[in-house]
């Protein structure tokens, strides 16, 4: 086994840059990838950190040798304070069992009628936009996409109507995620039991979310019929060996995971799509021409989407430039070697889809919004990772892709969205990538 630790910034440089590494992690990751190349290594507080920037190294960690890596990292430990040991943060046998259990809810057959849920929810949002469009008042697209995607995931996976509670629940989600990112970035935070203002806000947000999930479970249990949606699958599930059903805690963790992983990510991707389209009106016009040709004014169905490849390319390119999950982390369970460099046992391994998606070696003119680059597939399977890769690939990737394309199509049929300011938006790399201060946009009816 090679003993060469990867090149990287010195301890002095790291010490000097710590505040900016915390506040602007993406600039730091981009900078070190440009200076040190494919695999970068350094230590913080004695912990070896390895950043992998090359698709072949990423394939090694996420696919070929995935068993040597776990999700026991600061990122996922912080996330599990909200999601518990749901599918996203779980590992090993227990993860595999849960993944197998949940997978049928995301089958092609199940998703074939996703438009039955996505389109009415989108129409309701668009109706609410009419008075704003008439009065010229901007709409906060970031918040609007959060409310919409939460309602969709609630209805599609758990058959519940969250339209009344969406505002409160998305606010609670954002507060909880805010604390998660704060804890993931600041190792020396006051423990959760100390009643700091942040901890109190977090507790309140968690209570709101827990209450919503507990209600979903109890009303389904009271109904006497588990139902055939994902909640029903969780309630009916029995361990093959012991025959035991999932504990209440496990059911709670899985639902919370799906609600959170299944809406904030899609909302972030859609928000950036609207931002990019407003900066590139020619792309909106092109997509609208395609939509008019295929659908006229009729709302899209899932089966229409294959005839709207331009819409698909716009969404793929938005995910390239602004991948909501901008960092993927793993812990090395044993010593390993990646592209000739040593990965010590217990090292934190970091992969940033954002950084990889902007490498000129794989993506010509990487900063430019060019949906046509997706006329052919990505230049390397592991140079495009908005949904991760390998066995831990996002379970909701087809769900998210269909949902987003349906929403983009329906909105484009009725509105042009214009970013209310001439300057570029600032980006906050939180749990997902978000526009700093929201994204107020003006609505122009078609
Ligand atoms: C554009 C939208 C989305 C993006 C960008 C996204 C991104 C990701 C990524 C990168 C991972 C892998 C993380 C890792 O390997 O460490 C992941 C996993 C996951 N995602 Fe998504 N996701 C999206 C939508 C969804 C939706 C709609 C759902 C559910 C309805 C969902 C549920 C999950 C779950 C449960 C996992 C964990 C899967 C496992 O480890 O078995 N995601 N997602």
From TrEMBL:
Q: Which domain of life is it from?
A: Bacteria
Keywords per UniProt: Heme, Iron, Metal-binding, Monooxygenase, Oxidoreductase
Protein family membership: Belongs to the cytochrome P450 family.
GO MF, one term, reads:
oxidoreductase activity, acting on paired donors, with incorporation or reduction of molecular oxygen
Q: Does the keyword section mention Aminoacyl-tRNA synthetase?
A: no
Required co-factor(s) are: heme
TM helices/strands, residue ranges: none
Q: Any idea what this protein is called?
A: Cytochrome P450
- This chain's source organism reads Anaerolinea thermolimosa
């Amino acid at each position: 086994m090679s003993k060469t630790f990867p090149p990287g910034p010195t301890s002095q440089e790291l010490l000097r840059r710590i505040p900016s590494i915390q506040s602007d992690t993406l600039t730091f990751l981009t900078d070190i990838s440009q200076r040190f190349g494919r695999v970068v290594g350094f230590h913080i507080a004695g912990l070896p950190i390895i950043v992998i920037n090359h698709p072949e190294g990423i394939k090694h960690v996420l696919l070929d040798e995935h068993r040597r890596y776990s999700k026991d990292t600061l990122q996922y430990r912080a996330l599990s304070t909200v999601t518990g040991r749901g599918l996203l943060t779980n590992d090993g046998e227990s993860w595999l069992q849960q993944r197998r259990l949940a997978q049928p809810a995301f089958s092609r057959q199940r998703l074939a009628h996703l438009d039955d849920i996505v389109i009415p929810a989108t129409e309701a949002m668009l109706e609410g936009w009419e008075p704003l469009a008439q009065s010229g008042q901007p709409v906060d697209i970031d918040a609007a996409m959060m409310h919409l995607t939460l309602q969709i995931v609630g209805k599609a996976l758990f058959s519940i109507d969250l339209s009344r509670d969406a505002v409160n629940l998305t606010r609670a989600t954002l507060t909880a995620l805010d604390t998660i990112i704060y804890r993931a970035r600041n190792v020396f935070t006051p423990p959760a039991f100390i009643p700091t203002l942040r901890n109190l806000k977090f507790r309140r947000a968690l209570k709101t979310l827990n209450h919503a999930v507990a209600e979903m479970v109890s009303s389904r249990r009271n109904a006497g019929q588990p139902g055939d949606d994902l909640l029903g699958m969780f309630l009916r599930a029995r361990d093959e060996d012991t025959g035991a059903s999932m504990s209440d805690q496990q059911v709670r963790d899985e639902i919370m995971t799906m609600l959170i992983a299944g809406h904030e990510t899609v909302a972030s991707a859609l928000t950036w799509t609207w931002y990019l389209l407003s900066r590139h009106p020619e792309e909106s016009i092109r997509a609208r021409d395609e939509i008019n040709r295929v659908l006229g004014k009729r709302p899209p169905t899932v089966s229409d989407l294959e005839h709207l490849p331009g819409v698909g390319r716009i969404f793929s390119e938005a995910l390239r430039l602004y991948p909501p999950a901008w960092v993927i982390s793993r812990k090395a369970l044993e010593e390993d070697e990646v592209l000739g460099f040593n990965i010590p046992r217990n090292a934190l391994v970091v992969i940033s889809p954002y950084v990889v998606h902007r490498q000129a070696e794989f993506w010509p003119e990487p900063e430019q919004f060019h949906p046509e680059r997706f006329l052919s597939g990505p230049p390397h399977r592991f140079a495009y990772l908005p949904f991760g890769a390998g066995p831990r690939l996002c379970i909701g990737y087809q769900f998210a892709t269909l949902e987003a394309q349906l929403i983009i199509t329906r909105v484009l049929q009725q509105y042009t969205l214009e970013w209310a300011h001439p300057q570029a938006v600032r980006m906050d790399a939180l749990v997902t990538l978000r526009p700093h201060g929201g994204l107020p946009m003006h609505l122009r009816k078609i």
